[in-house]
Amino acid sequence: MIRFYFHPTPNPAKVALFLEETGLPYEIVPVDTAKGEQHLPAFRAINPNGKVPAIVDTEGPGGGEARVFDSTAILLYLAEKTGRFGGDPKDRPELLSWLLFLASGLGPFSGQAVHFQHAAPEGLGYAVNRYRREAERHYQVLDDLLATRPYVTGADYTIADMSAWGWIGRASRVLKGEDDPLARFPHIKRWFAEIDARPAAARAREVGKDHTFKASGDEASRRALFPSNYPPAAE
């Protein structure tokens, strides 16, 4: 059994897609990040970095429990555990390269673009421009790649596609103000439509819908989500 620590945001969505594609048994453990539950000692024991997603595999290597945090690490772990969606062995260098491009580039810059366009105070035009343009640049790299192949690593649908799907699904927030945010990236648009039409993707989008998560936007949620923005309380 997989215990899946979840909040309805792009990185957990990737893991939800893998779990739904494979049919691995799992249970959802909601982590309400707007309430600060990611900072509780019980969760920090699973992910010391205080971020979702994380999993605990009750049937890990050697028969014991295994904890895994960071969405890319989880996807790699589950692909190896199940022998599925890891792609052709000859494409392993491509898989690792694009997974890390997504983990260190497209995902973080998209996240920062969302933050500065939607959550940060007004008047930070340099930051808005910086992260928006870098997100667009990463989209263009991915679009150029998908002009040459059906999926991220080549002929096979893999965890690299699942990883990208999680963030591309938020294109309307990353590319704020565009009626059709993928219009400039036709190869991403074709690829995303194909993956998003998979039955597992529809099921993944429903994960966690039976739990009411707190809406962000008030002062308490900002402190929970961005604690490093606030100085520690004086003793």
TrEMBL record:
Q: Where is the composition biased (Basic and acidic residues)?
A: 206-222
Q: Where is the GST C-terminal domain?
A: 88-218
Q: Which GO terms describe its molecular function?
A: oxidoreductase activity
In residue numbers, the region (Disordered) covers 206-235
For this UniProt record, the keywords arranged alphabetically read as follows:
Oxidoreductase
Q: Any idea of its EC number?
A: 1.8.4.-
Question: Locate the GST N-terminal domain: which residues?
Answer: 1-86
Looking up CDD domains in the UniProt record yields: GST_N_Ure2p_like
What is the name of this protein? Answer: GST-like protein
The organism is Xanthobacter flavus
Organism placement in taxonomy? Bacteria, Pseudomonadati, Pseudomonadota, Alphaproteobacteria, Hyphomicrobiales
Q: Which gene encodes it?
A: yfcG
